[in-house]
Amino acid sequence: MGPKYFTKNKFKRFTVTKSDISIAESIAALLSGFIFFYVFSPYRLGKPFFFQETVEMIVLVSTLSVISALCISIKFLQRSTPACILPNKVDGLLLLYFLYLLCQLFFYRIDNEYCYVLFTLALFYYVCRNTSSVYSFYLLCLLPVCALLQIVYGYKQLSAPWQGLSDMIGSFLNTGIYGGFMALGFVAFAGLLLFMKLRRNVKIIGTLFSIPILIQLIYSQSRAAWLAAIVGSIILLFAFFRNSLQTFRLTRIQKVVSGLLVTCLSLLFLVGVYLYKKDSADGRILIWKVSWELFKENPFTGSGPNGFQINYMLKQADFFKMHTDSRFARLAAETTSPFNEFLKVLITQGIIGLLLVSLILYFAFFGSSNSKMKSSNSGNQIIVRAVLGALLTFSCFSYPFDFLSFRVLLVFCLAELAKAKETSSLVALNGTPVFRSMPRILKTGLICILFPSCCLALSSMYQYASITNQWSKDFIDFQFDRDRATEGMKNIYPYLKDHDLFVFSYGRTLNFTGKHEASVAILQEAMLLHSSIHTVMLLGDSYYRLGQYEQAFTAYETASFMMPSLFKPHYRIAMIYYERKDYSKAKMKIEELLKKEIKIDTPEIDRMKMDLYTVLKKIQEIE
């Protein structure tokens, strides 16, 4: 036990040494390590259906986090151990941000899954924050290990002879996100080799193992991942050569020349990255332009957790109504993310949310630290800072936080950086963490509140997982028994009525079974959760089958502006003109369509063109 410090108040302050790590804390750290490994590993305990894969991971992570949190809390019940580490600015701001997100739940329509994710991440932060930094080294080692496992898993996925390393997606179902994880694994690997005290032969083996990660990072062709790896590497190198840089002196002219050279090289790199995939870059510029217009509608508090997916495609349609000859028209596609996590925070949480996030990151990166604590665990802190810098860089051009795994990594990094920050003025003389002891009755009361709350949350999660499992079965049964599957989805609709993907799939099921009146009602609900072009097209189809041509025309027209390059909405509009016997407009639309540039030719488009030629011939005969 470390030395005691006494103050005039009734609380006692203690320090914790390595010998103070209890069995309960070791179990919590072990479970945290399993969580960390599981969310990034491509392998799963079972074979969950696609719809419930996220739910399955949330339930597992939450269960293990609850057990870990209870282990930490049991440790606090001991007379000789503290209640918790004294909170600092990072902890306080995170609590304020968490409360702000909870407040949004009262004003917006949110699916239960969002609440479960918040609960899970809050518990995981509590566990990471209150476990010793002795374990952080092992968690950091898991990142490159999981990156290597993803490479093995991705290589086994290659089935076609023409597929290569650039086609590998791992368990992320996307080459860009896969490349981003390779960047994080590479940065973590490089940091461990640079700053951890390892044997020479271990470093040589580690360097050899880092080569596959680097190769896969390059072949992923993800520019955001490349930039993330560069930023993370710069943070590591700057820390490694910090002492040398402090003694290195430049004249004013040398500083100016060096600054200009770095600026020119940076601009050349950015221009090269832009030109490497110009269409992709222009597509993201379009998304950012439309997203900015979306932000201006609710600048201070945002439009809610689902605000982007509810409003974006409709706002994109408005954009192309106003800019019919825009060069971005052929690049427009179905979009569920603004490809910039900070912009997403601005849209969904407003300026208030972005300000809180900025303050959290500022104090995590640059806030004052206990110098002795920092020096005693500087290697881990530098690696965590580099990984977090790479993750945030990647998030400026992608959507990693749509995945629970990257959110878990973000929470871990913030918890680790928060450990080294000063806790007001209560710092022990030897620089180790400072704690407070609380009255036993207060500790017991907190545990009595925490335990039943966690049990209720887990019970709700398991019920939710059971319902999504039933949804999965109904979805599979649809191809064998449509009526039974439709009835099953109808029964679970009250439980999943706020889940955008379920409501859409239920509406589509009704559409396919010919129940168009019910389909319209459900699809209109789906539009309130996610304004997808697929939902709009299904709405148009149902209206068309019901003979409600005005509503069908409006739906198809909206879809045609959402994605101007799409052929089918224009085809439907032409057919409606023909059904209305408005032959002049039908003929004009058909001739326009037959000259339209096809972005991706498919057999379905060929069949639609044949229909248009037939209709055009009939119109010419009538005339």
SSE topology sketch:
Layout: E1 5-6, E2 12-15, H1 23-40, H2 53-77, E3 84-85, H3 89-104, H4 112-129, H5 136-157, H6 175-195, H7 200-219, H8 223-240, H9 242-247, H10 252-276, H11 278-295, H12 307-322, H13 341-366, H14 371-376, H15 378-395, H16 404-419, E4 434-436, H17 440-477, H18 482-492, H19 500-512, H20 516-527, H21 533-545, H22 549-562, H23 568-579, H24 583-594, H25 603-622
Helix pairs in contact: 1-2, 1-5, 2-4, 2-17, 3-13, 4-16, 5-6, 5-7, 6-7, 6-8, 6-15, 8-15, 11-12, 11-13, 12-22, 15-16, 17-18, 19-20, 19-21, 20-21, 21-22, 22-23, 23-24, 23-25, 24-25
3D structure, described in words:
The structure is a single chain. This protein has a four-stranded antiparallel beta sheet with strand order 1-2-4-3, with no helix packed on it. The radius of gyration is 28 Å and the shape is globular. Helix 19 packs antiparallel against helix 20 and helix 24 runs antiparallel to helix 25. The protein is built from 25 helices and four strands. The longest helix is centred in the C-terminal third of the chain and has 38 residues. It has a domain of 142 residues: Serine Threonine Protein Phosphatase 5, Tetratricopeptide repeat (Alpha Horseshoe). Helix content is 70%, strand content 2%.
